[in-house]
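Write out the 3D structure for:
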Amino acid sequence: MDDLERTYSPAEASEDFNFAPSLLRRYAAIYQKAGGTIPHDKRGGRVYSQRLLEHFSAARERVKAGETVEDALRTFDLAPTEAVTDVQNNADAKQVLSLMGRLADANELLMTQQGQLVQEIAELRGQVAQIREQLETSQSQETPQDAPPQHGILVRLAMRLEGLTRRFRS
């Protein structure tokens, strides 16, 4: 507990945080059973920190929402090994970890596809440049009645390049 943090006797905690003394004792017992510690004064009475009482208040709201008292109190100030065990046993945490794994896999796939698209766009740009060069060369040598066969290829490549560029940007 932080030395500068305000502490409360059971009576003060009951009054200031609107806890019935019996509910405060019950929460304290369950919290300690889950591995939490509550300091005692010289006479052996519990001394509650403001942080702990705020946690008890939040736990009370979670209990009202349908969670068990044990689960609501277990998530606070546990020793690291107990906290890890609690997270590993928590179904919500498992679901979050599973989703994070899927997101990482999806991100890796997107990065691979992005690299492939960048490579394909570069190849297409090179092909378009070659065809333009061939067109310019052939147009200077041909008469207007001759239609260059590469013109259709150039149009298709340009359209494909535009489509890939739009896909890449979105």
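The longest strand covers residues 7-8.
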